[in-house]
Amino acid sequence: MSETEKTPIVEVVGVSKRFPGVFALNQVNFAVYPGEVVALIGENGAGKSTLMKILGGLHRQDEGEIRIDGKPAEIRNVSDSLYLGISLIHQELNNLDNLDVGGNIFLGREPLTGGFLRLIDRRKIAEDSRAYLKKVGLELSPTTPLSSLSIAQQQLVEIAKALSVNARVIIMDEPTSCLTLTETNRLLKLIQELKSSGVSVVYISHRLMEVQACADRVVGLRDGRNSGSLEKAEISHDSMVRLMVGRNLDLKKSVTRNGDRGTRIELRDIVSPFFPSHKISFDVRKGEILGLAGLVGAGRSELAMTMFGIVKPLSGEISINNQPINIRSPRDAIRNGIYLVPEDRRKTGLITSMTVRENVTLPDLWNYATYGLVSYKRELLSAENQRQKLSIKTASTNTLAKNLSGGNQQKVVLAKWLSLQPKLIIFDEPTRGVDVGSKAEIYRLMRGLSDAGVFILMISSDMEEVLGVSDRIAVMREGMLTGIIEADDFSEETVMKLAVAPVKTAVQLAS
Ligand SMILES: Nc1ncnc2c1ncn2[C@@H]1O[C@H](COP(=O)(O)OP(=O)(O)O)[C@@H](O)[C@H]1O
Ligand SMILES: [Mg+2]
Fold this sequence. Notes:
Layout: E1 10-19, E2 22-32, E3 37-41, H1 48-55, E4 63-68, E5 71-73, H2 78-83, E6 86-89, H3 101-105, E7 112-113, E8 119-120, H4 122-135, H5 151-164, E9 169-173, H6 181-196, E10 200-204, H7 208-214, E11 217-222, E12 225-231, H8 237-245, E13 260-271, E14 280-286, E15 289-294, H9 300-307, E16 315-320, E17 323-325, H10 330-335, E18 338-341, H11 345-349, H12 356-361, H13 365-368, E19 369-370, E20 373-374, H14 376-389, H15 406-418, E21 424-428, H16 436-451, E22 455-459, H17 463-469, E23 472-477, E24 480-486, H18 492-499, H19 506-510
Parallel strand pairs: 3-10, 3-11, 6-9, 9-10, 15-22, 15-23, 18-21, 21-22
Antiparallel strand pairs: 1-2, 1-4, 4-5, 7-8, 11-12, 13-14, 13-16, 16-17, 19-20, 23-24
Helix pairs in contact: 4-5
Bound molecules: adenosine-5'-diphosphate (ADP) and magnesium ion.
């Protein structure tokens, strides 16, 4: 029987939702059928989370109807949603940290004991929790504090909680963005188990391989509208990219450049305190993007921290165009035009409680200040300028950064650094957790910066990105530079070979 002959468990018909200045959802249709895994894909800001929050009772739609088993239903709050069999597992888990696992599973509906004393029945909580924890494959005591669990484990607790309320539809909003490969695979397996036990899953991810692995159907959103859907047989990387961005993406760069060998930033015999027995020497040429590849823990971020002055190198020298520079602090680095765009933009790159404008102009406040006062007009002008240059999608530069989608937050971070006329920018995992469309824009931006004469060092663990974006690739392993690959020799094998290469001693490297 084809899925379309069945009545959907949940159906969204013509739903629209506006936020101040943003049309987040525009006449969207969406359905979840019994026992299917439906993936919802779309670029950052497409409206995926908003749609799911409406189903989860966290937002109310402005227009349109929600039907459960074919009948119109009202979802006014989270308990309505739970009552209707929908469980939303948030993109950003905000578990109550001081609870234990069992307490979290039964939060708000704790079984009682002790007659009129109405005491919470901890024994029953523990017993019942254990059964649900077992179902999701989590072998731990219900009295374990939530705060001691990894994100992956906390997600499993959320799924256990969904099972305990007999959820018919479990929505997972980007569940794997913080998971390791093993954890991700375990989750994908659990999703199949949920499916065979009759639970439907809505799976949101921009990791297309995962979607391909688990989805029976794919629904696309673009700029708050439906952009199409794919039946199982039609699901492919390319067809999904088309749904997300409305065109085919070509990661390959048009020409490989060799860079200007004469003009360069040179690192000579840099020894970072993290790996005191290894000396690192290489150069970044003007006009090239130098990729820095390696496995997790290869020492790439540590090298970046050393170059940016967060930690002092034990020895060695950095020079720009043969002029040695002295970097003992980030302030020194910045004074010399060296910037670091950190991996965790939410923690270190962006102050989410400040507006876009404040974020963009933050590192350069003195430029906007006259007699110590920040000139609102000048700040606004600069922020507006950057917003247009980078096409940051926000209602206004006065919007709080936390209300922007991930890709646009990343752009704000870039705008922030760009306003400083940098010489070298080190990008640490520039597109981790970013969707394909925004990725392409970030690549374009890096290329633009490089063309404008900024030295670019790109740390990346994404093989496709390393091979597709770099002009040369330096590879590290365990704190040591194991080799530099020229464009002609680019392949996954050459990179991996160096990434797992036996570590030579510093003496050998120096010779
Ligand atoms: N609480 C909010 N206030 C204002 N704008 C919001 C809010 N939540 C989401 N938006 C905006 O709505 C649009 C859709 O966002 P979202 O649903 O989070 O997208 P996705 O999950 O697909 O990345 C974005 O432009 C986002 O900035
Ligand atoms: Mg989202």
